[in-house]
Amino acid sequence: MQPNASAKTQAKYQAIAHELAQTIRNGQLAAGEKLLPHRVLAQRLGVTTNTISRAYASLEQQGLATARVGDGTYVRNLD
Predict the structure, then answer these.
(1) 73 touches 59 (CB < 8 A)
(2) pTM assigned to the model
């Protein structure tokens, strides 16, 4: 995942959330699919785990993901 061109004008977590949201909406991530753990995605993108936490929280607020304490964050059914 690479942040889009508008990423330079928005916070890192917003750019990451935007990219993940697009990936979910276009079906590249299916309902029920587990998102990468915070640490793994943070390392891949070169950001902090807090940045990923904020991005995942944004996905939850948009109704695109749900977090299960101790289990991870999953893509929600969009139907």
Answers:
(1) yes
(2) 0.86
